[in-house]
Specification:
The chain is an all-alpha fold and 49 residues long. 76% of the residues lie in helices and 0% in strands. The protein is rod-shaped, with a radius of gyration of 20 Å.
């Protein structure tokens, strides 16, 4: 195989795997991010200052 050349199914599989990993990371981080944002809003007040 020549360097830099991929079979189409390799590209599609990589894109699908990347999308799955990104979705799982966002899904698992959402509760922590929501708690962090809520705590910051509480500390700074709702005006953001």
């Amino acid at each position: 195989m020549t360097a830099g050349v991929h079979y189409p199914h390799d590209v599609l599989a990589g894109a699908a795997l990347g999308a799955a990993v990104a979705t799982a990371a966002l899904w698992s981080a959402a509760p922590t991010a929501a708690r962090t944002v809520a705590a910051l809003l509480e500390r700074w007040g709702r005006s953001g200052r």
